């Protein structure tokens, strides 16, 4: 039976005499053994600077590709520095393997380090990249608008089964986390606000603060950020994997537009579910605030009346409109990043990250625009 | 067969049964692979070729029976497992090269993880392996930039990184053009003859079987086991089993 036991390898050196360095290797020159003596062997040959090196390989009882690499490397290194290296006693079968690598072959093996680019070139590349991204975004917005318009006119063309599946995954299944986060946000905000307000005896206004901020700002924002993290990323990963596995190409050659077939059901589902989730987020946020109010000694009806007094239907609808827009943005950017996926497993990860980051950036920027618009409209 | 009993056995499959979720795919399969030969596993789609291979390389545990590689049970867990794994290399059906690494990094990975070789040595050895499969010019390319045939060759180079005595190749020439596939056959023969590597190849490409295989076994879906064993020429010319004849004659099933 063949032995796979890694017997150790041994390198013996004699001090150079009359310009001749004598080395001897015995044992197994496999990838383990070669690893043990590589440094030692190469440095002693380089350090000796002897015009002639004699390597006694009669003790080598096994030699594989790594061993041959070492022998060829030593031989070529010695040849480059103008000396010569004689290998003695190498078994014929190993000798034959070594002869497969003529002197100089190793130097011709390709694969230097990749070209490194200068800072200016990198900035230029990044700028072009951003510009391309903007172009892609614009053309995607166009495609998506056209597809959504077509879907609105031809509701039967939408794959409702997919849309319901996505609605369940992105909406129903997100309810627990949306509920938890909004409840805690309401509770924490109320608690933090109660402390300074108490100094002025104005704890009752905690209700106003919670009602206004949850309905107008935190409800839609929290829901949208959770949607970006849960579903925008999922869309990007799913579509990205489809892209990598050429499934997107398969759709195209079947005559099915990937935007109509994949993006429209997802965007539709997200657009319907985000305002619904936001309603729950608003409610749970108010409940969180009411817990603090109760603990401060206010009865529930006081809190209820104060909330009714503080906010109007306008605040609620304004918030829901925001949620509607956030839903479109997050779902669309998730799908776009998925469709833009390159090739390979790492590309899918990259798309997923980009989907979440772009989603959150878009949410924040749009939220800012909404604030300005609502201010001037007096909502 | 008498002459074979003298030869060194590198893989021994003993009364092996494979099952997924209680559904038996293969049962009572026994055979041996001898050191230095090119051994092919044949059969139509769904007959359990890849299942057998995945059990042989230890990805799944046999439902019954044993698979011994160089005398050690591949399914046995514990400290010996890594030593067994280092005895062989595997080329997966679609290459399974790591997409985020260049070819050279792919080949270097096992050398970096399992040996004490210094970086310049690893670089050199990786390039030499790639040169052996005719890819030294593509060492710094990413797998996604390569054609299917090049990816398979690179996958063979990676499987050979630690110079195992045993290589498993899953669907060596599936989906490749005849010229590329003949090139791969040539590569396998060359490696088998010059480095004395044992190959276990899963395939259903007839030209490739005749070009490289010393011995084959043929699996069958209904039988859930081996229906024929021998050299490809023997099976083609002398086997009485209609299913084997059909396979080698490329006949449609209705013609029995």
List the domain count of chain B as a whole number. Answer: 2
Give the low-pLDDT segments of chain B: none
State the shape of chain B.
globular
Radius of gyration of chain A, CA atoms, in whole angstroms: 35 Å
Question: Sheet with the most strands of chain B?
Answer: 6 strands, mixed
CATH class of the largest domain in chain B: Alpha Beta
Overall helicity of chain B: 25-40%
Alpha-carbon Rg of chain B, integer: 18 Å
The helicity of chain A comes to over 70%
CATH architecture of the largest domain in chain B: 3-Layer(aba) Sandwich
Please write the string of helix (H) and strand (E) elements of chain A.
EEHEHEHHHHHHHHHHH
Average pLDDT of chain A, rounded to a whole number, is 89
Summed up, the helix count of chain A is 13
For CATH, the homologous superfamily of the largest domain in chain B is named as P-loop containing nucleotide triphosphate hydrolases
Structural class of chain A, please?
alpha/beta
Mean pLDDT of chain B: 84
Count of the separate structural domains of chain A: 2
Termini of chain A, distance in Å? 86 Å
In DSSP terms (H or I, runs of 4 or more residues), the helix count of chain B works out at 9
Strand order of the biggest β-sheet of chain B: 6-7-8-3-9-10
Fill in the CATH topology of the largest domain in chain B.
Rossmann fold
